[in-house]
Amino acid sequence: METMWAPWRGDYITGTVDHEKTKSEECVFCEAQKVQADRDRYIIHRGKNAFVILNLYPYNNGHMMIIPNCHICRPEMMDAETRCEVMDLIIKAEVVLNKVYKPHGINIGANIGAAAGAGIAQHMHFHILPRWNADVNFMTAVANTRVIPESLEISWTKIRDAWNEIP
Ligand SMILES: [Zn+2]
């Protein structure tokens, strides 16, 4: 890999826009929790300290997010109870994805901070998504486009039903 030095970019990179300090009133994850109907926001589960929701821009069918209820931006800001609940929800989501989609593998992860790839850096969230061998297909490689065969409505119904069946 080649390195291109660009010291003039330092001010920009360390600059004044702090994407992680937006307020909870402007946060889509805080807003989603206020909506009463789960189907309207594709909420799978509402827990005491965290909730589970479908990603509106899924990488694959079944792409979920596990999100602490409170507006925090880093894992160390979760209290002990929330940490336990989030991990339990991640594991349940894994079980549900295996049941519904029978994937070859599963990605679990979090992007902490905009620089790490977080789309909504101000409210931390864990991604969990099913993967299949060679699911990075021709369209992804050539057209930078992903093909998502199943609608969010159908994914929500299938995942929600499985979630409620599993203790
Ligand atoms: Zn928030």
UniProtKB/TrEMBL annotation:
PROSITE patterns: HIT_2
Domain HIT as annotated: residue spans: 28-138
Residue interval(s) of motif Histidine triad motif: 123-127
Keywords: Hydrolase
Presence of keyword Hydrolase: yes
Zinc listed as a keyword: no
MF GO annotations: hydrolase activity
Lineage: superkingdom: Bacteria
PANTHER family named in the record: AP-4-A PHOSPHORYLASE (PTHR42997:SF1), HIT FAMILY HYDROLASE (PTHR42997)
Name used for this protein in its record: Diadenosine tetraphosphate (Ap4A) hydrolase
Organism listed in the record: Flexilinea flocculi
Lineage: Bacteria, Bacillati, Chloroflexota, Anaerolineae, Anaerolineales
